[in-house]
Amino acid sequence: MARPALNHSVDMAGMPTVSEQLRRAREQQQLDIYQVAEVTKIKTDHVRALESGNFEIFSAPVYIRGFVRTYGTMLKLDVPRLLAELEAELGRSERFRDPPPLTNAPRGALDFFMLQLSRLNWRIAFAAPAVLLFAFLAITLIRNRAAEPDDPLKHLEPGVYQQRPGQGNDTLPLPTPAPAPAPTPPAR
Question: Given CB 3.0 to 4.6 Å as the disulfide criterion, which of 15, 17, 54, 104 pairs with 49?
Fold first, then answer.
């Protein structure tokens, strides 16, 4: 069953609808639909639908709003006023009154958490911990440099020498002298 289109040339208050305003402005500037489509990059079918008020061919109101904004800007109309009037017209349509849900599943804690993460300003989220880490490292470095250095050998116990079997207890082994190099014959 086809839904009735919002095809009124004048709305309830006697003012022209958004579609009528778009069509009149285009005709006053002596543009045809093909020129509008070429400049705005909106399909000619969509331009015709916007001008006739047949919003039912659009899958979501976001497309209608975007196309009306682009079309109104091209025609140099008062775009904020035009969009406000479009919202009023779409509010009278049952299909476009409320935004459609993206999923039918109920929202849980994870969805809420992910929404909050998407709203987070990541530049600040990464910069703040980096600044804190830098400050902590700077303070630690300054405190360590200001402290008097400890004697590194202070806590060492006396070394114990492991003797080889058969050696006396009171002497340390002496290094053995390296063998003397053989004399070289004189050069002739």
Answer: 54
The beta-strand segments (E) located in the chain are none
pLDDT classification of 168: cutoffs 50, 70, 90: low
Q: CA 188, CA 186: separation in Å to the nearest integer? A: 6
Cβ-contact 83, 65 below 8 angstroms: yes
Whole-number Cα distances in Å, 70 to 18, 42, 75, 92, 99: 13, 9, 9, 23, 21
Gap between the Cα atoms of 39 and 74, Å rounded: 8
CATH number of the domain located at residue range(s) 18-92 in this protein: 1.10.260.40
Q: How far apart are CA 115 and CA 81, in angstroms?
A: 31
178 phi/psi in degrees, rounded to 5: -75, 145
Residue 48 one-letter amino acid: R
Q: What would the pLDDT profile of 106-121 be if each residue is shown by its tens digit?
A: 778 888 888 888 888 8
pTM for this structure? 0.48
